[in-house]
């Protein structure tokens, strides 16, 4: 088993046991949905697969790529100065 680097800076990814928090939340979310739909085994496998694919995707593309894709398709993710109103014609200041 490979060693896990502990987060030192605020920008470092957060860990839950040995998984990054994003991977763990995908798996736990799929598992919770599986409990509700009485399909725990199937959705645990799907959650594991989606978690694996997202970790591979996250390592292959620049940071924020998925957020950029969702933003341009009309899905608002997060808030802050980096996400501006796309319908604003003029920016003052």
Automatic annotation (TrEMBL):
GO cellular component, one term: outer membrane
Listed transmembrane segments: 24-48
A Pfam family annotated for this UniProt entry: TraL
Keywords: Membrane, Transmembrane, Transmembrane helix
Protein name: TraL protein
Organism: Rhodanobacter denitrificans
